[in-house]
């Protein structure tokens, strides 16, 4: 804590000595007391940024002290007035929750140590083939590429021809010119949701795309921006409609997560089995 804030805390502690919940002890380690609860300068200092001005530091410190005092007073009143059986229930719940946190943290650490290998492609493909009927699309997908460029570009006709033909040489040429375009996406082998495409153009380019046009395979769209300065080329490569079988590339992340969770579950069961076996062997666990 910087000297500035430390002095502020000293001044605040003096200012609050008339409050009944502040300590009467001459102990510079404490800035406040509520019954048997003590607020230290260190704890208070941890909640005050060194970047604050003198005035803001004072306001922040006073606010924290008041909130801390209110919190402790409420806690003590609750312990004094709530029925003992209810308090015992809370303590039992707290104990169980603490135990669950410890066990989960320990098991997660062991699981992470066991998960040394990534989910391999063969496992993903096998799961996809065995469960393909479960992977039905709930929305329309599209593979497309697009360009946004200045309408006055001199090479506009050549760019359009390359964009439509789109052989490997054309793709490379367009990629090399990417800095000349205002925006582009040439990865037309990636499946994306049609709804996302429409939202992207509407929100970021102020263009309303017709869904019916996006649902036509091998369809080329050409249109100008609202201000007439730019021109857009869109080419629909392929589409998949709702309820059709989802392509592997689209559901791969989902399958990988399923297989990862399955692997974690198996490792968790293995850990529980081994820990009980080892405890029995080492006389740490007995059943009478």
TrEMBL record:
Keyword annotations: Signal
Segment forming the signal sequence: 1-22
Domain of life from the UniProt record: Bacteria
Name of the protein in its database record: Peptidylprolyl isomerase
Organism classification: Bacteria, Pseudomonadati, Bacteroidota, Flavobacteriia, Flavobacteriales
